Amino acid sequence: MPFNQILQGDCRQVMRAFPADSIDLVMFSPPYFGLRAYGVEAEAVWGGDPNCQHDFSVQAPPRRPRSVDDVKDPNSKQATVRGSAFNISGGYFCSKCNAWRGELGLEPTWRMYVEHMVEVCREVKRVLKKTGSMYIVLGDTYQDKNLLGIPWRVAFALIEDGWILRNDIIWYKPNHMPSSVKDRLTQTYEHIFHFVKSRKYYYNLDNIREPHKTESIERWDRALRQKVDSNAKLRRKMLETTGVTVASMVPKWFEYTKHDLAVGRVGGFSYTDPLHKKAYNVKGKNPGNSLEVKWSNPESPIVEHFRRKGSGGHYDYGGLSSPEGKHYAEKGRNPGDTIKVKRGKYKEAGIHSPGERDWYWSEQRNLPPKEEIYRYLVYWKEKSGLSLDDIKRSFHDDGDKVSHWFTRPDSEHGFAYPSKEDWVKLKELLGFDDKYDKAMTETFLVPVTDLGHPLGKNPGDYWSISTKPFKGLHFAVYPVSICVRPILSSAPPDGVVLDPMCGSGTTCLAAQLINLKRWDLLGYEPNETAKSIDWRLKWIGIDINRSYVELARDRLKPYLVKTMLDYG
């Protein structure tokens, strides 16, 4: 494998030389549909007959870019052309097999663009490990006044092709470009889709947890003390179960649960951890912390701020226009399509954050395997000579409760454990021994949670990250901080990171800076868990444009160390 290198070529062809199941994390941002032309060097052949001697003599109809975007002139490496008068070539079709030659993103139709994205991701899926993840950064396009919904069209097509979509992360740009458009909101965000190829995959949330707010910790502290201090029986049982007092429990509320002691879970984990085979996480949910939501609910209180006045497409923004600048209107700039809602708005709607809900304990049992208990109960039922109907009458059961105790776990209807009270009654009825009495009747307390995780909160799927200026000859460079959380959470410390359309090499640079622990250059301050890891990531970048390959190599050169080029 060509580790720690930037390779030049069509990523589909380059990846074919990689072994299957060899990559841990893929992150890339493809050319967006209909926005930029990168030149003849970026053209590739798509579809058709691979054995055909192509004759690309049929020119596709030209594409018209979005009017407010800069478009790279294919006749110049530096010049840009602004405005809707610039028509981009739609590429060429083979007169023999109908293959298309052109740049990804400049297809004659959005359907072709989606098909080509699926084709690229099929090769990504082949090289991606079963435990791997793929992140795609993708923005949308307006054409003839219509927002095309390209990111979600691609996402739905990938789901149809067998991918599992885990997250739609909103990348909000606080320093987004202002817009002169007067009959819609300014575009302020892009999508980061997190896909996996298997239901069980590597993911270490602990590496990207963020500190809890002081007021949240204080609120949990008060709730814990009030709950336990007000119930002497609960306080006594907690002491018997955990061996700790309330005062010492508060700062380490989850470290003493029986489940964690049993599985020896400390620090990071992946979705192959036995913990995730449970119905829920005894350490509690990972409450999101975002107070900024996309305006999507027509019933939201924020809607009242948008009142249409008169005709001709003029709108009153109800005081939401920013007074910071007078972009295209005396009343302020277009507020954009990501609306900030204060916490009070949630309360007015009767919605409360997880941290504001009640805190409580739950009783749990260390239950033996279902198959084991099933065989045990069937044996004693047959030995007793009682029928299933006899047992149901004894329990006054006219439903399926008793039936589930004597149903194979792998059957359609499934097995269910008797409660501890039902177990005692069942023992009297069937006369079985005390082999499983302790496991089936003794309980211990675990916190079921609205308390936060001791390592911090889940950062949530709304990322506010400013764009950064870039001096190189590339017009679509995302900030290096975009890559940090996907890499820290979805790549093992010695994993392989691939960017199949690396452009200026941002994803590869992020992986290398993590190896060097240059958090200052990443624009991201990690938690102590991530800092303590010995990162030895391997990375590979691919781009079809030779000038971008050279750009990425030059950008990475200052951070390469000989000893790091050869590890792995």
Task: List its traits.
elongated; 28% helix; 19 helices; disordered C terminus; single chain; Rossmann fold; eight-stranded mixed sheet; 568 residues
Could you walk me through the main structural features you see in this protein, from its secondary elements to its overall organization?
By secondary structure, this protein is α/β, with parallel strands linked by helices. The chain has five domains: 5-33 and 107-206 and 458-565, Rossmann fold; 42-105, no CATH class; 212-266 and 344-365 and 445-457, no CATH class; 301-340, no CATH class; 382-442, no CATH class. Helix content is 28%, strand content 16%. The strands form seven sheets. Strands 1-22-21-2-9-13-12-20 form an eight-stranded mixed sheet, with helices on both faces. Strand 10 and strand 11 (146-147) form a beta hairpin. Helix 2 packs across helix 3. The longest helix is centred in the N-terminal third of the chain and has 18 residues, at 110-127.
CATH level 4 superfamily of the largest domain: Vaccinia Virus protein VP39
How does the major sheet shape up? 8 strands, mixed
Share in helix: 25-40%
Count of DSSP helices?
Answer: 19
Would you report the number of β strands?
22
| Overall average pLDDT | 74
Overall number of domains: 5
CATH architecture of the largest domain: 3-Layer(aba) Sandwich
Q: Which structural class matches the secondary elements?
A: alpha/beta
Q: Indicate the low-confidence ranges by residue numbers.
A: 66-86, 244-330, 342-360, 562-568
Question: What is the overall shape?
Answer: elongated
Tell me which oligomeric state these chains represent. Answer: single chain
**What separation lies between the terminal Cα atoms?**
10 Å
Give me the CATH fold name of the largest domain. Answer: Rossmann fold
Question: Which percent range describes the beta-strand content?
Answer: 15-25%
CATH level 1 class label of the largest domain: Alpha Beta
Radius of gyration: 29 Å
Strand order of the biggest β-sheet: 1-22-21-2-9-13-12-20
